[in-house]
Structure formats: C-alpha cells, structure tokens
Write a structure and sequence with these properties.
There is one protein chain. The protein has six helices and no strands. The protein has 189 residues and is mostly helical. It has one domain. Helix 1 crosses helix 3, helix 1 runs antiparallel to helix 5 and helix 2 crosses helix 3.
C-alpha cells in the first residue's frame, strides 16, 4: 500500500464506514448465536437492553417496533463511531489487531461506561454463554472493521485516485465525450 499519511478526516470517514459495515457482520453473528442459546438465556441481547434501559431512564415509552428501530440505529451508529475512533488511531491495523480492538470495545462498553452510567449491570453479572456470544461477535466486528478499513484505504489509493476521466461527458448536458487527457480534477493535484 501507498505510504501516504491519511488525514484525520479521511481516517474518520474510512473507520466510520468500516465500523458500520462490520456491524452487519457482527449482527449476523449475534443473531445466529442467540438462536443457539438455551431457552432461559434467549431474551433480548444487550443492544436492545441498552435501548430499553435508556428509554426507561429518560421516561420515554417505546413501542416494540420503535424500540427495534432504535436498537438497529443505535447499534450501527455505535459501530460506526467505534470504527472511526480505531481508524483515527491507526487505519491500517491488521485483522488480528482489529479483533483485539473489538474485544477492547466490548471491555470498555460492558465493563466500563455502560454499567458506569447505570444502563446495564456489568458483564460479570451476565450469563457466561451470553458474554461469550458477545465477545465472539466483537471479535467478528473488530476483524471485519480492520479488513474493511484496509479495502477502503486500498480503493482510495488505487481505483479512486486522481486520473483521466475517460468516460465523463464534456459537460453534464452534453453527449459529446471529453477530450482525452487529464481531467480538471487530476490537474488540481
């Protein structure tokens, strides 16, 4: 990969997108793992519990469908925010370090700020199988975030790098092809 240093804005964008995308893989792992839990542990996973607890503490009543939507939105937003933070530090981490970062997010969340502000009890008081499911899902999230950051960085340095726009029209309302040569955008570099 190119050794050019990415600016903070680019790192935040790449990490946010990667974290958002990785949250889909994580959610899939969570759903599959949830189905395998024993019946007595198959109650809503922590993203929903966080939304329910927060709404209750704020005195907001959420219908089930609204709570589902809020859970999805909050879960993906949190994944994007955590991805952005990781990329701000290092957008080129490998998948192993990404997986470790995912466990770090779990630790900071479920043993840190979430019980710290009284949203949920600490993970040490949750059932072991549910914790293992969540830790595994965070491993998936972290590794996928790292891979997505790598792919986005590579795309940024190759296929979307400045160059001639050979398929662009001369003007937005014209069907005449542009003259061969560097595009005005490439000339700005």
């Amino acid at each position: 990969m190119n050794d050019k240093k990415l600016g903070l804005g680019s790192r935040l964008l790449i990490g946010g997108i990667a974290g958002f995308v990785a949250t889909l893989a994580m959610t899939s792992a969570m759903a599959r793992g949830h189905r395998r839990l024993p019946e007595e542990e198959r109650y809503p996973l922590t993203p929903r519990e966080i939304v329910d607890s927060t709404a209750e503490q704020m005195g907001v009543s959420l219908e089930n469908e609204a709570a589902k939507d809020a859970t999805i939105a909050a879960h993906f937003a949190y994944g994007a925010a955590c991805g952005a933070l990781i990329a701000a530090a290092n957008p080129r981490i490998g998948e192993t370090k990404g997986a470790a970062a995912g466990v770090g997010v779990w630790l900071a969340s479920y043993l840190g700020w979430i019980p710290g502000v009284g949203i949920l009890r600490p993970a040490t008081e949750h059932p072991l199988r549910r914790n293992l499911l969540m830790i595994g899902s965070h491993l998936v999230w972290g590794a996928t975030t790292a891979r997505a950051m790598r792919e986005l960085t590579l795309a940024r340095e190759t296929m979307i790098e400045a160059g001639p726009d050979k398929d662009a029209s001369a003007s937005p309302d014209s069907n005449t092809p542009a003259e061969p040569g560097p595009s005005p955008r490439a000339m700005r570099k």
